Amino acid sequence: MSREVSNPNLQVIESLDDLLWIFKKGARDPFHFQIGMEFERFLVDQHTLRALPYEGKHGIEEFLETVAKSNSAWEKIHDQGKLISLRRGDTAITLEPGGQIEISSRAYRSQQCLYQDLKSLDCEMKEIAASMGAKYFETGIHPTETVETSPWMPKSRYKWMKQYYTQRNSRAGLEMMALTSSIQVNYDYKDETDAKKKILMSSFMSPVLAAVFANAAIEQGKPNGYMTRRIQIWGTMDPDRTGTPEFFVDDTFTFEKYRDYALDVPMYFALRDGNYVDAHNQTFRQFLNNKGGEIGPVTMGDWDFHLTTLFPEVRLKNHLEFRIIDSNSADVVVAIAAFWKGLFHDDASVDRWYEFFKQFTKQDLDASLLDVSKHALKAKLGSHSVLDIAKKLFNEARINLEKDIESRSEVQYLLPMKQILDSGISPAESDLKKLRAVRS
Question: I need a surface site. Which of 42, 198, 277, 321 has the fewest CB within 10 A?
């Protein structure tokens, strides 16, 4: 049975308090804090820039098979007989709906180890892609495809999700699946109070870092009117499960409130015996109250799985996930990790920025995200320049890394972020300038 379609935790849910356990067990001593990164890539034909199909010569299936042959440590994961993922310890290569390749690293305390791991894997995969006449596109939106022309990967989960958004007439939902590509930071909290501070802080940092790394401005070979259209897509695709809940940013967050929020999100599906089954669009609360109905009984595995189908900009499981940044180069991925460690592994910095961001409202946040989607580093958060906030955050992260003998050498990984902030020009703006130069 594939890990992708398994549901191993068969403990039956007895009470709502059971649902809090995943959050409580995620609390860690700061000495054990780590950073993990996930980032996606579009795999395209190097001549046409069109997405590779799954099957056939030089398709994505062949790409995964070739990666697997390169190292015997890779475990091949199948879904309905189709190769859809590779695992090597805590490192994974998986497929997103439109053929995006997602690379998930193990979590590290040392950014040097993270850098070596991600760079070696990224280089290896680029070489394999090149041998097939393919290349990566490291952007947040597909450069050539549309929902109608994109390939769809043979993954059971995605068939159900595609049906869900088709029935809801959500084109943005389908665009999210097929056309977007992102970077995710996975990080730790020490207790509920620490999680509360980091969620509020991260939520208001969403437009700031989305602006710094905006990289979704060109589609079908021309400007799309945005600096990061990913924000526009994710902001409109599914109000039930995206955006930022009010309690994330009004200083009232608790694990119980997150549980209750998750309980009232409609389910995509449930898993039984390794197969996806229709959950009839009921919320998890309804599913639980009905004891699963004909699907039942309802287990902790169902809950764990349901939590992966929520898409707020900051997501809580047994760790925190920051999810808004457009895909960029591997060097940028490591820069983000080093920045995150410098800022979020220092209690004084967390407290200071938590107090700073408490002045803003959800309305400020939503307005800033809209502003950033179109203007990147020229946008504002409230009355503050997004670029100015980004520079101050960066400088604090750098200082924190420099003052610790263990992390002093990791400052070097911040360089790609520093270059963007010094220029005041996001990757999207750089790409648009190059496009204009080619056309002039």
Answer: 277
Whole-model pTM? Answer: 0.95
Give the long-range contacts of residues 364-372, CB within 8 A, separation 24 or more. 365/203, 365/204, 365/206, 365/207, 365/244, 365/249, 366/243, 366/244, 368/207, 369/206, 369/207, 369/210, 369/231, 369/235, 370/231, 370/235, 371/207, 372/207, 372/210, 372/211, 372/214, 372/227, 372/228, 372/231
pLDDT, position 8: 66
Task: Please give the sequence-ordered ranges of beta strands (E in DSSP) within 239-381, or none if there are none.
Answer: 242-243, 269-272, 275-278, 311-312, 314-316, 320-326, 380-381
Give the separation between CA 360 and CA 377, rounded to whole angstroms: 18
DSSP one-letter string for 99-126 = S-EEEEPPPBS-HHHHHHHHHHHHHHHH
Q: How far is CA 296 from the centre of its chain?
A: 31
Distance of CA 163 to the CA centre of its chain: 22
> What end-to-end distance do the CA atoms of the chain give, in Å?
55
If DSSP codes are grouped into helix, strand and coil, which group holds residue 159?
helix
Provide block-wise average pLDDT over 10 residues at a time, the chain (440 residues). 53 96 97 95 95 95 96 93 94 95 92 90 92 95 96 94 94 97 97 98 98 97 96 94 97 98 95 85 94 91 94 97 97 96 97 98 98 98 98 98 92 97 98 87
Task: Of 120, 98, 364, 332, give the one whose Cα is nearest residue 215.
Answer: 332
DSSP 8-state class, residue 140 = S
**What whole-number distance in Å separates Cα of residue 371 and Cα of residue 363?**
12
How many angstroms separate the CA atoms of 360 and 248, rounded?
12
